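[step 3/7] fold_predict: job queued, chain A
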Amino acid sequence: MIKFSKAHAYGNDFIYVEKRAVDGQPLAELARRLCDRHSGIGADGLIIFERIPGGASMQLFNADGSRAEISGNGVRALGALLLQDDTAVETRLTIHSEAGPKELTRVACVGARHTFRGSMGVPRDLRQISIAAAGESVQAVVVDMGNPQCVVLGSLPDSSKFRRLGHALEHHELFPAGTNVEFACVERPDRIRILIWERGVGPTASSGSGSCAALVAAAAFGGAARDAEVVAPGGAQRVEWRDDNVYLTGWAELLFDGEWLS
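[step 4/7] structure written:
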């Protein structure tokens, strides 16, 4: 039996298990079983965490069992879990991830829904490239947001093209460890609309780090402002690209606790 919690941010959902409950278990296999939408609990990812002074440390596994360095939505939902019994609004946490420490400040809390402004790091290796994928040439922006990101700027693709290109780009030889993929349309300087193909998951309703990558790409190469609303299918988050950091503001919501019996 494994005790777990389920939470989501804008439909991007995660299962949370304390590290001590699964020490010695094959975590990749556990992630695949727990995240299965038919025979498991169902989620985009599994986060193994350990409470430490001032916050927590975390490991993230995608639904297919592969490792991921960071998730902006997953970090915020972990913050909501840690602070579920704390009523103070201006509460700060540090979440230690494989992409480095992420600082969270809770700015609002209504019931099980917690809103945080989080520092997501400084973009690295930002560049625009041409990629041959799925039988066509794609202009893309690649950037490291603590995890690999590939952003395609322009009109959003239809469902068929989204799936074809998303899968092809995720597994392209340019990205030996795979990549997250966002299709981003700049509707106006302060508003960007995106579709997300998550590495190790496929289509997702939202992505925190993907929203950050889309803003950085759109501001650098697509005429967007450096402070904008990024709208995914699951809802809108605010992203600010400052000199010291990229800041992500949005909510996360606790859903339920349970016990895995298998």
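[step 5/7] annotate
The longest helix spans residues 208-221.
The two ends are 7 Å apart (CA to CA).
exit 0
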